[in-house]
Design goal:
- The chain is of the alpha+beta class.
- The protein has a single domain, classed as 3-Layer(aba) Sandwich (Glutaredoxin), CATH 3.40.30.
- It has helices at 37-40, 56-73, 95-104, 118-123, 160-170; strands at residues 10-11, 25-28, 34-36, 45-50, 77-83, 111-113, 127-128, 130-135, 140-144, 183-186.
- The strands form two sheets. Strands 3-2-6-5-4-8-9 form a seven-stranded mixed sheet. Strands 1-10-7 form a three-stranded antiparallel sheet.
Length: 190
């Protein structure tokens, strides 16, 4: 059995382009402060990523996610990561472990805990990782995959889909509405 066959291959729900960013206020496991979307948004746009500590898809994509965060924060893109998993069934995703995961991986962006799962529901998030890029007016510009790389498929990480979308946003270029959904482990609902 191949590695990818034993994981849950859940695609994004593909929230409609132009949807306004759902508002929230969540605890950051890195700082213990509470932040809203408004507090963290970037001047040119905001990338919201639903992740968790244990998902093989997230672990696979994490090096590129960290590079994208580093490359684009300086260009005015706010970066927000959120975990919405049920910590009763998945204790490895609890806030203390989130804090350790963020520290171990040198996150320089907030890692928010969505205990009620209401934020994930408001984004119509389905999987980890799930990417949402909003423009400077807080309207959804891109939602979909990082790139074609998945654990075990042999395609190297490039971040090409997400990087192309961020570049289009930063440099005021049009971007096609035909976008491939992300694929990953399903969010662990209560």
């Amino acid at each position: 059995m191949q590695f990818s066959q034993i994981m849950s291959n859940t695609p994004s729900n593909m929230l409609p382009i132009g949807t306004f960013a759902p508002q929230f206020r969540l605890k950051d496991t890195n700082s213990n402060f509470h932040y809203s979307f408004e507090d963290l948004k970037g001047k040119k746009g905001t990338l919201v990523i639903f992740i968790c500590n244990h998902c093989p898809f997230v672990i696979h994509a994490l090096p590129e996610i960290l590079m994208i965060a580093s490359d684009y924060k300086v260009q005015g893109i706010g970066i927000i990561s959120i975990s919405s998993n049920d910590i009763e069934k998945y204790p490895q995703d609890n806030p203390e472990m989130m804090s350790e995961f963020a520290f171990k991986n040198s996150f320089d962006f907030p890692y928010l805990y969505d205990e009620s799962q209401e934020v994930a529901k408001s984004f119509d998030a389905a999987c980890t990782p799930d990417f949402y890029l909003f423009d400077s007016q807080d309207k959804l510009f891109y939602r979909g995959q990082l790139d074609d790389s998945r654990p075990g498929n042999g395609i190297p990480l490039s971040g090409s889909d997400l990087r192309n979308a961020i570049d289009a946003l930063v440099y005021n270029r049009s971007f096609p509405e035909l976008q491939k959904p992300s694929l990953g482990c399903n969010i662990k609902w209560k």
